[in-house]
Design a protein that fits this description.
By secondary structure, this protein is α/β, with parallel strands linked by helices. The protein has 5 helices and 12 strands.
């Protein structure tokens, strides 16, 4: 069974672990560098990005996670995880993994009380959709969410809001969403992530 780590320093990691168990993967809580051993991928969940970044520095996780990405392992950041994965965060100094060629704006939609939900189009999810899910929008939950202000030339934009705001992107083996797929009953994003993992592992076997 595919073993997927979920960074468990703070935030919504339990929800990701529960969904992984329903889509045929083994979820592993990651708190220390040794917890990354033997994983096929890693999810960095939502939470408070400054706190998670400082804890990741304290526990020596920044370097090992960057190394994991450099070795082609698939890493997915949701909400605060997106912020941590970006190379640049507008107007804020905080610890970052700096792995994705993104410029991110924190709390772009306002405070907690201005959190919202929206149906968004994510065409790449068609590859992992069951017949009854085909062409259905993804119901996205935004909680003090960031947005992606700009992307590098190699980054694939996966979804935008109706106003054009970028809320999901992929940069090779790295995936980022501004919203919380783990808070819905829709597992397509987790299935897409696992498809990325399978493709990377197959490619590494062929080389």
């Amino acid at each position: 069974m595919t073993r997927i780590g979920v960074l468990a320093l703070q935030g919504a990691f339990i929800e990701h672990l529960k969904i992984l168990s329903t889509v045929g993967a083994e979820g592993v809580e990651v708190r220390l560098p040794q917890d990354l051993t033997g994983l096929s991928g890693l999810i960095i969940p939502g939470g408070e990005s400054t706190t998670v970044g400082k804890l990741a520095v304290t526990y020596g996780l920044i370097g090992p996670i960057r190394e994991m990405a450099q070795h082609g392992k698939v890493i997915w950041g949701t909400c605060a995880g997106l912020i941590l994965m970006a190379r640049t965060v507008e107007g804020v100094e905080q610890p970052l993994l700096g792995m994705m060629d993104l410029v991110v704006r924190r709390n772009a939609f306002g405070r907690q009380v201005e959190s919202f939900e929206a149906d968004i189009s994510v065409p790449v999810l068609g590859a992992v959709s069951e017949p009854e899910e085909k062409n259905h929008p993804f119901h996205a939950v935004f909680i003090r969410a960031p947005l992606i202000a700009s992307v590098g030339d190699a980054v694939q934009i996966l979804s935008r809001l109706s106003d054009g705001s970028i809320v999901a992107a992929r940069d090779g083996n790295l995936l980022a969403t501004a919203f919380h797929p783990e808070l819905t009953g829709d597992t397509r994003f987790h299935r897409y992530f696992l498809q990325m993992v399978a493709e990377r592992e197959e490619a590494s076997r062929d080389t």
